[in-house]
């Protein structure tokens, strides 16, 4: 995972990618067919579509896979949910700060109005320790 791209709706993952990641975080490991069974609970999807997206997610460094010997693969997330969002958040914030500097920081501060007060208190403590 060397760079991230923000998808439409301001999301890092597309809708199908997010469903696939959530499925594999729940399963631990799984084949395309295993993931497809979960995906189909909420949307119509073709086996080949899920396979293609999972292959691309492997190229992006989101998923790791090993060959099972029969031409199929077993996939797993390369990172835990927490690690994934920590890495993508850090990369996103770094890109924004490099590109937009003070504007990005100001928007981040404004967005803090939406955060839970307990989480805000934790953030304040972390900021104090960084000084």
TrEMBL record:
InterPro entries tied to this protein: BlaI_family, WH-like_DNA-bd_sf, WH_DNA-bd_sf
GO MF entry, a single one: DNA binding
Keyword DNA-binding appears in the UniProt entry: yes
Keywords: DNA-binding, Transcription, Transcription regulation
GO BP term, example: negative regulation of DNA-templated transcription
Sequence similarity: Belongs to the BlaI transcriptional regulatory family.
Protein name: CopY family transcriptional regulator
């Amino acid at each position: 995972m060397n760079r991230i791209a923000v998808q439409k709706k301001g999301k890092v993952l597309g809708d199908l990618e997010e469903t696939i990641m959530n499925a594999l975080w729940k399963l631990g490991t799984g084949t395309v067919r295993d993931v497809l069974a979960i995906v189909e609970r909420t949307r119509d999807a073709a086996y080949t579509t899920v396979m293609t997206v999972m292959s691309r997610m492997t190229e992006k460094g989101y998923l790791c896979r090993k060959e099972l010997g029969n031409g199929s693969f077993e996939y797993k997330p390369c990172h835990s949910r927490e690690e994934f969002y920590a890495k993508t958040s850090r990369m996103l914030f770094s890109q924004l700060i490099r590109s937009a500097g003070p504007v990005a920081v100001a928007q981040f501060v404004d967005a803090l109005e939406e955060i839970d007060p307990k989480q805000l208190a934790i953030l304040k403590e972390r900021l104090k320790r960084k000084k």
